[in-house]
Each structure stands twice: as C-alpha cells, then as structure tokens.
Amino acid sequence: MKHLLPLDDLVAALEKLPGIGKRSAERMALAVVQSRDGLARKLAHALLAADEQVGNCSCCGGITVTKENPCELCSDGQRATGLICVVESPGDILKIDKTHGFKGRYHVLGGHLSPALGKSVADLRVNELLSRLQPEGIQEVIIALGTDVESEATVSYLADVLSSRKVKVSRLAFGLPSGSAIEYADATTLQRAIEGRQLL
Amino acid sequence: MKHLLPLDDLVAALEKLPGIGKRSAERMALAVVQSRDGLARKLAHALLAADEQVGNCSCCGGITVTKENPCELCSDGQRATGLICVVESPGDILKIDKTHGFKGRYHVLGGHLSPALGKSVADLRVNELLSRLQPEGIQEVIIALGTDVESEATVSYLADVLSSRKVKVSRLAFGLPSGSAIEYADATTLQRAIEGRQLL
Questions:
Q1: What SS3 state is found at B119?
Q2: Of A2, A13, A97, which is closest to B46 when you measure between CB atoms?
Q3: What does the pLDDT look like over A164-178, one tens digit per residue?
Q4: Are residues B30 and A5, on separate chains, in Cβ contact within 8 Å?
Q5: Which of A47, A94, A108 is the best residue to mutate to test the B interface, defined by the most B CB atoms within 10 Å of its own CB?
Q6: What fold characterizes domain A56-171?
Q7: Cα–Cα distance for residue pair B105/B167, rounded to 1 Å
Q8: Cβ count within 10 A of residue B141
Q9: What CATH code would you report for A5-55?
Q10: How many CB pairs under 8 A join A and B?
Q11: With 70 as the cut, is the pLDDT of residue B74 above it?
C-alpha cells in the first residue's frame, strides 16, 4: 500500500503526541478514519478551538482561556494568602489544584535547569517570580519540583536566589508515596522518609 | 480551575481514541496547547485531510484514498492469484500486507460474530465475499481471523457457508509465536502447536 499518504501523515502527526509510539499512532489513525460518529472532525475541531482559545497567563504562566488574563487563579482575591507555589509546568498547577490542598498562588518556572537540554537560568521564569514577591505580599515560596537530579539542582539554585529576599522558602516533603508498602520503596526514598519522620 | 472548557473538550475528544485513558488524554491535551511548533493545527489538519481523503474500498472494504476506488490492492492485476484472504478489519490488511507474505486479494469482514456486541451475520460482509468468488476466479479462501471464542465461531460459520461453493477454505496456522519460548506459551497454544506439528 503506497498511496495512503493522508493516513501516513495522520500517523506522523499523532506520533508527535507525548507517550505515543508508531503502533499506537497507527491504531489511532485507523480508528479515526473508520469512525462512524465523526471522531476525526470532532477531534480536529476540539484541537483548533483549544489552540485558539487557550493560552498562558501573563502572571503565573499557567494555562488559561486567552480572554481571561490574568487567569482565574491569579485574579482570585481569596488566594492572596502570601503563599506562592513554584511548579515546573502548567500541568503541575492543574494537578496540585485538584488536591484542594493549596489555597495560595502559583508560578510556572517553565522547566528545570538541564545542561543536556540546553536549559539554563535564562530560560526559566525566575525574574518573573522575583518581581511578584513584593507586590503580592509573598511570605513563603513553596518549591514544588520533582526529585530527580536536575530538579534538585534547580531547587538549590532557587533557594540560593531567594535567600536574599525576605521570604521563607520551603519545598515539598519527601517520603513514602500514599498507599505504598515499605517493600516497594527504593533506598533513597526510605532514607529520606526516615530523615523526615514525624512525631505522633 | 473551572473555566478551561476548550481544554476539557479536547481531553474528552482525545479520550475517544483507542487505548487512551483520562490521564493520557490530559497529558496530550496539555502538550498540544503548550506546543510551540503548532502541533494542534498540524494534527487538526492531518485529521481533516485524512477524514476527507481516506475511505473504504467498495470491493474489499479495506482502506483507500477515496479517489482510488477500487483500491490499489483490488485493482492490481498481479494479485489475481485465485487466493482471497478474509480479515476482520482494514487494519489487518495493512498488517498482513507489510509481511509481503501474501500476494492475493483481501476481503474485510467488518468484525466477527458477537452476540454481546449485537453483531450478527447480517452485519458482516459475507454476501459481498460470496459475490466475489466467481467473478474473481477465487480457488481458495484463507480465513485470517483471531483465535478468541467469537472469532472461532465466525470461522466455523464462514467455513459452513463456503462449503457449498467450489473453493478450498483454509485458516491461518496455530502454533508458537515467533521468537517465543515454550516456557511462555499457554496450554492451548502448546496443544495446538503439537497437533499442527510439521515434519522436518
């Protein structure tokens, strides 16, 4: 079959999605063109609508509908709690916000320091963070980055930069993930859970 | 975050793709709207192009570009070998064709008998198959269906219907999958591999 170019193009485009390999993309493309309820058109229109109507908040850098800028979270007066949570990507905001465990503001860094990927300090939204501290009356910056080596380096860098400001700096707790058994925890996680043990 | 409707709509549309759950759909949607090289628009256009330009061959039922009907495989004179391979879906044709191990024609059944899904004989392209036998000088029908219970029932039904026609009817061999060890084969596969053993 040499002449199924539109299908091949679709497979190539689907392969660009995160976590999708060639076989998954082929299966999706076939399902889409065989769909009887117009899946291709529905998905295409949802993509174009999202592309047109969704953008980044000029304040926190998170995702927002373009007509609402600053975003819902940044313009919510009840969130002016003096707390700001620094995350890597807009998706992290959605994730943390779903927990309903944090009521402060957010700030998207736009990645972490990564020499391998050529990401340096200049590529992160650090100055944007610093310029928010005073006007928003921030008293504590919670750094919510991951625990890989590069994220750790980014945390150190941020802690260093923030040390000269009049704010507390904290980061997320290390420990056992919820619902997990000791049996499945790796040595570093266990060690950190012991170090961070809490009195009952 | 209540007002990210376009993103929610996109997640809902992506979730309709085969093998995509809510979390994968969310990850994809975020990647798409955050993409700096216009992934959303590229994917949308690939979807619309495929939807417009790809259809089903009126002869074999496989996938073809709509302006080429009957499809490349059906109109290829070199494939008039008297052999026809019956498959469940258009994707199966692409899969078998990639092996370069079959040079005859194909016929898409459009599924298998499934009382659970309400798929009966009337929903399968059986009459279309029967009407191709004589004009195309078919001497052997190779049934290339799976080995689950419902596919087995479909194979039996087809064998029964075809028994009154002047054609040989065969089905794909059972046995060990390529590259596999005895250790990983289940009892039924092993039993069938023994039954179908070949003299060396």
A1: strand
A2: A13
A3: 999 999 988 888 888
A4: no
A5: A47
A6: Dna Topoisomerase Vi A Subunit; Chain: A, domain 2 (3.40.1360)
A7: 15
A8: 24
A9: 1.10.8.420
A10: 178
A11: yes
